[in-house]
Amino acid sequence: MEILYEDNHIIIVDKAPGEIVQGDKTGDEPLVETLKGWIKEKYSKPGNVFCGVVHRLDRPVGGVVVFAKTSKALARMNEMFRDGKVHKTYLALSRNRPPKVSDRLTGYIYSVEKNNKSYFSAVPRKGAKEAALSYKYLGSSDRYHLLEVNLETGRKHQIRVQLSSIGCPVKGDLKYGDKRSNPDGSISLRAHRVRFEHPVSGKIIDVVAPLPADPLWQAFAGVVGENDASKEVAGREDGE
Predict the structure, then answer these.
(1) Which of 98, 137, 149, 206 is most buried, by CB atoms within 10 Å?
(2) pTM, 2 dp
């Protein structure tokens, strides 16, 4: 677990693929409990430690996760996520190049609990919720293609489902159409960046998770760095 940002109200970490954010039926220790223990030890806190789950990432996905250290921050962050005021950027590797350099994907997603899988529909149907995201093609290595994805809605497995719907399943994601799994059980999708107004101070929080040391990701380090730098300039201009 790597701490990317921390203050009195929020803490942002780089989740490793395979970790669960919140407890589930597996009984494995969730990241929120690991984090509580870390806070308790670091600050020698007596009694129970407060750490609220603001949002989650799928187990095989790594990257930025935001937690709240106070109930005030948790309530405000939950509201910001509901209102779409938290901007999340993901990076995805696919074996297939997307049909367009950039596009906005819309449709409907419904989930089936029995097999823990979501499905895409181009038209409305019972139980399906509207889903929208935009993607941008950033570059290619010898075998893989890198996409930047920005979510507009937060449906279960949304990025995985919608990229698969255009013929670009995430590398390693057997559930949604890729050919082979990754050796470590992860999928090549990362929550790369999060940007929002601090729930208490109001300052702009803009946090980027470093790329994994895996050579497949490092092949794109240059293009990701350039892309991040251009967004930092745009972000400063937006905040002025």
Answers:
(1) 149
(2) 0.92
